[in-house]
Amino acid sequence: MSIKELLPNGPAWEGKTSGQMGKFLDGLDEEYERLIDKCLKITNDFFPDTTTVPERWESAFSLPQGIGLTLEQRRARLESRWRILSTGTMQSEIMEEIFALSGFANVRVRVLRPYEDP
Global pTM? Predict the structure, then answer.
């Protein structure tokens, strides 16, 4: 997808995708694509069944590294551990661990009750 496709429709933008503005937008396309790819890779690592870095999850779950196991076998093992840990309500500590594994070490999760004011 080109960044030009994100521009709004309307007479104010007609012809703005050519000339100098068009060259500028074309220059942004490579960075935009890189950013989208990075976001997709990060979201894949939010969950153990789609992760590309199972060693981080294994460490978080206190599991030995899956040496000799295929990526799919490691994901299945992590997914089963995930289900054990996430039964019932989601715990803030587990969510913070997930964020930390995804590169957001300073994120803190606060559990709100229906009667609390955020």
Answer: 0.48
